[in-house]
Amino acid sequence: MTDTFFTPVSGFDLPRFAGVPTFMRLPHVDFDHPHFGEVQIGLIGAPWDGGTTNRPGPRHGPRQLRDMSTMIRAQNGATGIRPFERARCADLGDVAPNPADVMDSLDRMKAFYDRVGAAGIRPLTGGGDHLCTLPILRSLAADGPVGMVHFDSHTDLFHSYFDGTMFTHGTPFRRAVEEGLLDPTRVCMIGIRGTAYDNEDRDFAESVGIRVIAIEEFHARGVKDVMAEARDIAGQGDTYVSYDIDFVDPAFAPGTGTPEVGGPNSFQALQVVRELKGLNIIGADLVEVSPPFDASGATAYLGASIMFELLCVMV
Fold it and tell me: Using an 8 Å Cβ cutoff, are 215 and 263 in contact?
């Protein structure tokens, strides 16, 4: 499977602080590139946070994720997987959102992923706030609902914000269920915690059959047991993976807009992804990295490392 064009630049050949940063130092292949049709997994930036309701900044996430991802090497130290030898991967660049128009941005994102899907490319996205996942699902689930494993400290299942605003980063999966993009009986949400406005999101989850695993249960049962249930729920059908960096405790990932204490550590953050092995993953994302709240880049480096683990299970 190895193709020299799709081989990332090695730190032995060019220092990691040099060169133009792309996701994991992969080649940049846009829609007009002669190698576009050969790509199997496309890494994509979604620099948009028009759905943010409090602390903005995830629109800057993809740039910092790319920069910190230059530290990623060819082989997974825990699993031995060398993903760039198993699939032709490339950085497909950024979706071009409209920062002044939420609905236009959603349409632009769906159109971008439609082109990616038409080429048979599976997307791995660096966000962006969590509303970015909705247009991705609109594209990937156009032919029928899919399952989802969702790592987060929030369900993002609210009906609306501010007396009728339907599209925020707290509503994407409510919309996805209503639009028939997700099969709620094949959705597992892991890590949910924090103070709450009310029980509306949990009540909705229960009413449609979404499995919510709160952080207390996660810690009590452990990674392997929880993830075995998540795999059973998703089954062997098409499954999307959505990973909000605020799933991780803010001691390890402070650079996010809505942090919640009491979460997993950075090692558990990687473990849960490794336990996705065997699922039929049609796409994945890592969202809500907000560089203004962590100028050190540590949150983005964890995010890039999670994206690498996602890539390893996708191949």
Answer: yes
How many domains does the chain fold into? 1
Chain centroid to CA 142: how far? 19
Question: Hey, how many other C-beta atoms are within 10 angstroms of the C-beta on 251?
Answer: 12
Starting at the edge strand found earlier in the chain, the sheet holding 146-151 runs 89-94, 41-46, 122-127, 280-287, 238-244, 146-151, 182-192, 211-214
Which residue, 214, 302, 292, 296, is CA-closest to 252?
A: 302
Asked if residues 49 and 58 have their Cβ atoms less than 8 Å apart, the reply is yes
- CA separation for the pair 283, 242 (Å, rounded): 9
Q: Which of 143, 117, 154 is nearest to 42 (CA)?
A: 117
Backbone angles phi, psi at 81, to 5 degrees: -70, 135
Tokens for 43, please give them.
Answer: 């890494």
Question: At CA 191, angle to CA 214 and CA 242, rounded to 5?
Answer: 135
* Pair of tokens at residue 61: 């996430």
The CATH code of the domain that includes 123 is: 3.40.800.10
Q: Which of 23, 28, 26, 27 is CA-nearest to residue 67?
A: 23
| Structural domain span for residue 264 | 4-314
Helix (H, G, I), strand (E, B) or coil at 59: helix
Instruction: Going residue by residue through the chain, which has 315 residues, state the pLDDT in tens, using 9 for 90 and above.
Output: 457 899 999 999 999 999 999 999 999 999 999 999 999 999 999 999 999 999 999 999 999 999 999 999 999 999 999 999 999 999 999 999 999 999 999 999 999 999 999 999 999 999 999 999 999 999 999 999 999 999 999 999 999 998 889 999 999 999 999 999 999 999 999 999 999 999 999 999 999 999 999 999 999 999 999 999 999 999 999 999 999 999 999 999 999 999 999 999 999 999 999 999 999 999 999 999 999 999 999 999 999 999 999 999 999
